[in-house]
Design goal:
The complex is a heterodimer of chains A (379) and B (316).
Chain A (H helix, E strand, L loop, with lengths): L1 H17 L1 H21 L7 E7 L4 H11 L4 E7 L2 H10 L4 E5 L3 H6 L7 E4 L4 H29 L25 H32 L1 H6 L5 H29 L9 H25 L3 H18 L15 H4 L3 H15 L3 H25 L7
Parallel strand pairs in A: 1-2, 1-3
Antiparallel strand pairs in A: 3-4
Chain B lengths: L2 E12 L2 E12 L3 E5 L6 H8 L7 E6 L2 E2 L4 H7 E4 L11 H11 L4 H14 L15 H13 L5 E5 L7 H16 L3 E6 L2 H4 L4 E6 L2 E6 L1 H7 L4 E5 L4 H9 L4 E7 L2 E6 L5 H11 L8 E3 L3 H20 L1
Parallel strand pairs in B: 3-8, 3-9, 6-7, 7-8
Antiparallel strand pairs in B: 1-2, 1-4, 4-5, 9-10, 11-13, 11-14, 12-13
Helix pairs in contact in B: 3-5, 4-5
The chains are: A alpha/beta (379), B alpha/beta (316).
Amino acid sequence: MMRRIIAMAKKETLHIVRDWRTMLVSFAIPLIMLLLFGYAVTLDINQIPTVVCDQDHSPASRDLISKIVSSDYFRKVFVADYPDEIKQFLDSGKAKVGLYIPSGYEVNLLKNRTGNVQVLIDGSESNTGSIAVGYLQTIFTRETFKSIQKNMERRGVQGISKAGLVEPVVRVWYNPQLRSANNIIPGLVAVIMMIMTALLSSLTVVREREHGTMEQLLATPARPSEILIGKLIPYFVIGMVDCLMIVILGSLVFNVPMAGSFILLILLSCAFAFCGLGIGLRISTTATSQLFAMQLAVLTSMLPSFLLSGFMFAIHNMPNFIRPVTYLVPASYFIEILRGIFLKDMGITELYKPAGFLLIFGALMLISSAMGFKRRLDG
Amino acid sequence: MEHVVVAENLTRKFGDFTAVDNVSFQVGRGEIYGFLGPNGAGKSTTIRMLTGLMAPTSGKAMVLEFDLETESEKIKERIGYMSQRFSLYQDLTVIQNLNFYAGIYRIPRNKKADRIDWVLQMADLSGREDILAAELAGGWKQRLALGCALLHEPEVLFLDEPTAGVDPRARRGFWDLIAKMSEQGVTVFVTTHYMDEAENCHRLSLIYSGRLIATATPEYMRSQVIDDRIIEVSVFPQDEAIQVLEANPNVRRAQVFGEVLHILANPNIDGIEVVQKTLSAAGLKPSQPIYIEPSLEDAFIYLIEIEDQREEGRKR
């Protein structure tokens, strides 16, 4: 049993090492994805380009503008003289937010009237837009309150400054700075491991059938289980190396904290690697060509891990008819585990359910691949 | 004689097409047994059934007294197989391929080095251990594949068109190796469509459209199969000559054989005279006809024709 598995694993490793493209895919792509997601794809929104048009030219209007653009969320890119110029900036995409303070703003405030301010938002980037609205509303609420307070004081009413005000005291747990890297990078471990293990292993059996080498192998006494286990060992190693690479670089380069047990993380990563390898192998034993196998692997592993796992979009926000599908995506369980261990210091007592799912899913996939493996040339 | 391969009514269908039709034969220990037939006659399908690579639609086979259906694993441990297409790993070196198969066949560690050395010697691959299989020339590739199939000292060797696409000199060498194996007691089952190669077999079956139409030694096939005498003559134009000759009741058949015609004639008459007269009467100028010994190819064509006639009769 062992001799054959070792021979198979060695041979498969030689194929991988010999082919620089496989090596590139195995190690460079995870690295590139880590850098892309770590640096470029940040869901935090800062420095939104903003164009302002102040026709009031009063201390109050200047004060409001400075409150907004000094907040780090907004960055003043242009000061327009006329409201029409705002349109040009939004049209050309040079600004995402336009702020127009018409003349009479300060006078209105002083005379107990509403000080109107027009805010124009570029809704084509709905995410940025809605976040900008949120930030602005916070700033405006604060300014409104200040202005009411001033008016009261001017009329001689004292001591009501905070009366009747509801002020929430917010504490953010697990990720106090709400850094999206802390959320994305643990999720990325799952996405990358799934893509790598499923994609690479999806080619391994069908390639031998295409090249005709399977014919020779099937004429030997090697059993399907020996062939398949031997074949998977190197891809398991690649999956785990990728996992370690992202975990280590995530913590060294992107300062993602590691609250929980590293050992537990590695053990459960192994379970997840079996799921990916199982999916890939299941494809490889059925697919009729390498091209078809690859497309199927991308479709069944990459897309669900990106879109239906909670990696990019929270599962509880998904429509009711999609949510049940996420229960079948191994990555959604592993992301729960990863975020639990990285950020919340969860142990196995909290994570046994998703961990159990991964083990069962992986086992089922591998068993069904072994059963689906054609021991003959004609099925 | 001990029979190491026994096939009984082996049949394999692919949909409506019957690739192998009710084939039965026995191969004795140490014998070189050939399956001779044109492409698509069912040679590869037969060999794939015997090696457990394809399931027979009906019929059964025993290899080394193990039942193919239930004990294929035991069979696979004791046989070597070389497929028609080169099916080793092209991106692995000679030695890596050998090491891999040594592991797959679980050759004991203390014997492994000796066996690999033996294969390298046998295949004349010493000094080429680190060459990629893809970079080997045809003849060496063939010998490497044979070597991988012999690593575990199999009792039966199944070779599917082992010399397809190999130059004549390398083919010669390859058959010398096969003869040597047979002397050492290895049974060899080999398919080929080269008539000259088939002469190297101890016994031969002709397979045509999935059916065995004759089984005998090559000598017997050449000398005994054909009742008619064969006359060789050079004459042009060949088409016209064939027409004229076949109109004669004493001529069974005339056919193009390269530059000359081979005529099968009634053995009880003076064929040479008949041929000469018939052709001259038609205004053609033949060379001096001569009697020739039938070749394996003559025998094969003769048998195929009888088979075709029988098939025609069956249809009617």
